[in-house]
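subagent[fold] <- orchestrator: predict structure for attached chain, return tokens only, no commentary.
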Amino acid sequence: MIINKMERKKFIQRATLGAAAVLTGSAISLNAKTKIMENTSSKNKGFSRANHVGIVVANLDKSIAFYEALTGLKVTNVDQIGGDRMAQVLGLKKTLIRYANLHLENINMDLLEYEQPEPVKAHYENNQISAMHLCFEVDNIQDAVKRLKDAGIKLSGEPIIFEAADGLKSGFGTAVAYFDDPDGTHLEIIEPQGPFKRERQ
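subagent[fold] -> orchestrator:
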């Protein structure tokens, strides 16, 4: 087939316009995807920050004394909440809760004493599904362990420092120890290394 100069010129123009349209469409599509990702990211930001951990206690005053002595901090607020609206959001028929707020450096603690409904004692082992624990970061585990023992707090076992024999692939040098609060809530202290170490804000 023989294509004259005029037809060749028209062909090149159409091809150029087509390529430009494809590139423009790709750019629009990329911009749209970027915008969606930005919107999704902004919607999920709240789930990347922890606000507080709540611990149900048998006696609020005793627990305040324990955690103030443990952390070296004072509670910032003591109050109570209850009524139909609070019961509804908790999925209870009725509720009345005395509570205290303790602000740590990177998370808050809520100590909660239920007056209604009447609380029941929970017991769980570390290997039970849904069991949770609160871990405190320390700069020197030996100093922290001495503080606990001097205060009469019994450790679940003597502290260890992670090494290859423990089966993990990283985080060697991390030191941990476990203990319970007066109500049996499982607590941990950690002197972290590797992936266990957090950047301080």
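orchestrator: received. Logging for downstream: The two ends are 72 Å apart (CA to CA). Confidence is low (pLDDT under 50) at residues 19-23.
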